[in-house]
């Protein structure tokens, strides 16, 4: 099951420097970009969380990545 956008894990993955080596390449690339964007504009966090969740929803392989967050 994919967590709701209000789940704190989304925020944590985008605001931390946690290791993403266990995630797929596509997920790592996206999260790295989103982390940079959130660092530049912290007010965009909610939008970036939605973008990450939408990516996971559309890409079944990313569901396994989310389970590791």
Describe the structure.
The protein has 69 residues and is mainly alpha-helical. The protein has one domain. The protein is built from four helices and no strands. Helix 2 packs antiparallel against helix 3 and helix 3 crosses helix 4. The radius of gyration is 11 Å and the shape is globular. The two termini are 13 Å apart. The model has no long low-confidence stretch (mean pLDDT 95).
Quaternary state of this entry equals single chain
What's the β-strand tally? 0
Globular, elongated, flat, extended or rod-shaped: what is the shape? globular
- Name the structural class: mainly alpha
Give a quick account of the main beta sheet: strands, pairing sense, barrel closure: none
Q: Please state roughly what percent of the residues sit in beta strands, choosing from under 5%, 5-15%, 15-25%, 25-35%, 35-45% or over 45%.
A: under 5%
User: Poorly predicted ranges (pLDDT <50, ≥5 residues)?
Assistant: none
Q: Approximately how much helix is present in the residues?
A: 55-70%
* Count of the separate structural domains: 1
Radius of gyration: 11 Å
SSE layout and pairing:
Elements: H1 8-15, H2 25-40, H3 45-58, H4 60-66
Helix pairs in contact: 2-3, 3-4
